[in-house]
Design brief:
The chain has four helices and seven strands; from the N terminus they run E-E-H-H-E-E-E-E-H-E-H. By secondary structure, the protein is α+β, with helices and mostly antiparallel strands. It is globular, with a radius of gyration of 21 Å.
Length: 163
């Protein structure tokens, strides 16, 4: 924090101003040279690594049989994991301090069934109130424990089966 006088000269009725720098949370895995190995992910995720490992092992096997592909993106300066089924992107996964984010993107048409899903109400509300990024409306889950994985699986089922 930097404190200084307004106009750099203290008047007789000194006006004090404060410049505060606010740090926004950023995704981890920012080094393009460090691949997100299990060891790297375990260190980044801490306790939520158990939920991550359970999630990944479930979605890569039957009945989902999804593919995961880690790639470093220069524009966001972070590693992201694309989860896909054949050529269709199902969702994106990013690593944050102590949790991982799962981001699903829907068009207005492809997301029309989300309000009827048996998922947490806050996710439904987020979908209906989130502003589109281009034509896509995001639904993001910050996963800190296995309890949150049920909604992730329901959104995967919906995304895969939506025509």
């Amino acid at each position: 924090m930097i404190t200084r006088w307004f106009n750099d000269t203290p008047p007789s009725s000194a006006i004090l101003t404060t410049n505060v720098r606010i740090e926004m949370e950023k995704p981890l895995l920012n080094d393009s040279e460090v691949y997100p190995s299990d060891e790297v992910l375990k260190n980044a995720l801490g306790r939520s690594y158990v939920a991550y490992k359970s999630y990944i092992s479930t979605i890569l096997e039957d009945p989902y049989n999804l593919l995961s592909e880690w790639k470093y993106y220069k524009d966001g300066k972070a590693w992201l994991c694309k989860i896909s089924k054949k050529k269709k992107t199902v969702h994106w996964l990013s690593i944050w301090p102590g949790f991982f984010k799962v981001g699903y993107y829907f068009t207005e048409k492809s997301g029309d069934g989300i309000p009827q899903l048996d998922i947490d109400e806050s996710l439904k509300q987020a979908f209906s109130s989130n502003k589109p990024i281009g034509k896509l409306i995001p639904v993001t889950i910050d996963v800190r424990s296995k309890k949150q994985l049920g909604d992730c699986y329901k959104l995967i089922d919906y995304k895969i089966n939506k025509k």
